[in-house]
Amino acid sequence: MKQLFLPYLWACNGEKMKTASLIMLLGLFSFIQGCAVFAPKSGILVSVTSTESPAEISSITITVSKIQILPAALQDKGTAESDWITIEILAGHYTFFDLTELSGGPILIASDNVKKGEYARVRMVIEKVLVAFEDGRVVNASIPETSYAIDFDFEVRSKRGSTPVTTELVFTFDAIKSVTISENGEIVFTPVISASVIELVVP
Fold first, then answer.
1. Is the terminal CB of the chain with fewer CB neighbours within 10 Å at N or C?
2. Contacts of residue 44, Cβ cutoff 8 Å, sequence gap at least 6
3. How far apart are CA 146 and CA 127, in angstroms?
4. What is the pLDDT of residues 37-74, one digit of tens each?
5. Three-state SS for 178?
6. How many helices (H) and strands (E) does the chain have?
7. Residue 16: CB partners within 8 Å, gap ≥ 6?
8. Residue 185 φ/ψ region, left for φ over 0, alpha for ψ in the -120 to 50 degree band, beta for the rest
9. Are 49 and 173 in contact (CB under 8 A)?
């Protein structure tokens, strides 16, 4: 700060110096404050869980490459790919999980800071699904749609009243309904997912 104001202070004197310095300080304060108001952000977590799996299946391993959310203000417009906000996956570019191990509760797969506000849609991109059966077969399931989006209204905020909170978005898979067998015997994975939101109190 001294290096910023020093040349100007030498060129000014008396009230002019005080006035000039005050204007510059106020301008800097307004700029910083304006940045904070322009893009306020809050934490969001993404977890996955599942219902009970079919008895004849020993594992359903899903590889996910992307999790995204869409601001409510853009829901009724022609949605461009750039409108989606990507939540950073904790494991890197991909994460995988076994639905048969998730009936006991959710696991965390992604976390990020996003703009506070209303959101209206969530999307998960599934790259691969391996289904293992109790008889020893392991099948690379067919996925009709790799990008799966659902309409879901929720809000991301940093406080509930005066209490700091973090938003947790939970995807719940219906494992039994998601795995089907086609007429020609092909294993097909069509995700049946519901979404919910939990607000976690920040210590």
1. C
2. 69, 87, 111, 112, 113, 114, 156, 166, 167, 168, 169
3. 6
4. 344 678 999 999 999 999 999 999 999 999 999 999 99
5. helix
6. 3, 13
7. none
8. left
9. yes
Query: What is the identity of the amino acid at 135?
Result: D
Residue type, 137: R
Nearest to 40 by CA among 92, 104, 117, 145: 117
Is 32 strand, coil or helix?
helix
* CA angle (47, 50, 54) in 5-degree steps: 155
Question: What sections of 57-178 are H helices per DSSP?
Answer: 175-178
- Contact at 8 Å (CB) between 21 and 9? yes
Are the beta carbons of 129 and 61 closer than 8 angstroms? yes
Residue ranges of the chain with per-residue pLDDT less than 70: 1-40, 78
* H-type alpha helices, the chain: 2-11, 14-38, 175-178
